[in-house]
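Hi! If you just cloned this repository, the fastest way to understand the data is to look at a raw example. We've pasted two of them here, unedited. The first protein comes first, obviously.
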Amino acid sequence: MSPFAGFPPGKTRLTPLPAAFFSELLPQIEHLGELKVTLYAFWFLDRMEGDLRFMRFTDFAADERLMEGLAKTNAKAQVVLRDALQRAAERGTLLRVAEAEGEDADALYFLNTPRGRAAVKALQNGDWSPQQITRPEVRLALERPNIFRLYEQNIGPLTPLIAETLQDAEQTYPIEWIEQAIRAAVESNVRRWRYVEAILRSRLEREHDQANRGQSQKDRRRYVQGEYGEFVEH
């Protein structure tokens, strides 16, 4: 298990949860899969727009990070997901509306909130159809903040020159490095891009040095142990 690096500095987007989730629902949930699926539904639906917010089985199943957290293999994760959704629906946390009998992919899931109950009632009355709703792609892997937002939240206002510099940095360094360098700058109370860039350059140089040392050792072994190895003193 890899350790959690901590929540990023600066303002981050929050996912609201009703107080009743903690006081009434959380104490009842004993199944870890049900808890993960329930929290994921709150997160997913909060990132949609409009009053008609729903999920399908495929929305859960298509998120690789969610599925990896449910089981080690995708086949086992599918089983856990179906069981977790069934538990959440039986508990009443999620409202399940099947468009076709017995088809998981055709089932719609709504949170059991006033908005969710109103959407289900309108659907059953024929006031709207799922095919009419344009739904944005929502994935856990896409939740990472982009470099512009990271800069504005932690360093300062974005200018055209800075934007160009940030784009170059994004092409040069992994976004994880940039996040960590900005976090280090904030913790050091040095909110300047030059400071962040110095951290990134230093890390890149260390990576190159380590790679070169590894290659040199590999070349030496090839030379010593290779065709002319018997002529080399070692």
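Ok, and the second one:
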Amino acid sequence: MEWKSLSVHLKNRRIALGLSQGALAQACGIKQSYLSHIELGKRKPTLDQLAAFAERLDVPLQWFINGKVQPGYAPEDIALELRALGISDLLASKVKVPGAFRTPEEVLILSLRGDEVDPRVLEAVPFILVNRKWDRWLLYAYARKYDARALVRLGWLIDIAFIIREKLPHQVDPVSDSVLEWIRKQAWDKRSKHTDGMGFPTEKPASLPAVHRRWKISYATTLSGFIERAKALGEAGRYG
């Protein structure tokens, strides 16, 4: 975990609640001098002590990592959660360990928002879409909350997911289609007049697969790229 700023977040929260070092130390069963060393960054608390701080200060353990009550939204903040969703081969140079995992729906939408989407994540999404169950309302709500483009991108990726399932019937686990079909319908109604390359548009739009053109997506990749990624993830899950 990222504990570099733990002392700062601990001290800020204590002061915000109007607690003295002595009062917090007594409530947590430690000496004031020991707490002082923690706040100065000279000592690190044990897990039991950290849990005691969290309980007394009314914050989750996540607070001591980034000074917030939930993990961040950057690629390095969601990398471990994406691995847990099934993108087992995802590598990130600066992975941040969160204090807790969010819902799969929120993580998926976070990975699809913004002007640029990580190709390694994007091309894995069709595989995970047809290998787990999803909550339609959470997917829709998080898309509306974070980035409306994510919903349209999701609709396009659902179409690709269905194609992959036909091509690789033994590589994916069939789940109910009703949620994905409902999301696809909502996404279809939200399409923009402009194409979306997600930061990596092709220079030859005419060469794109029909499913890309249908959704006004100009992202530079072929269906074979998605299929090969699904094969790799399927094998990794089977033998990993």
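That's it. A detail worth noticing about the second one: The chain has a mean pLDDT of 91.
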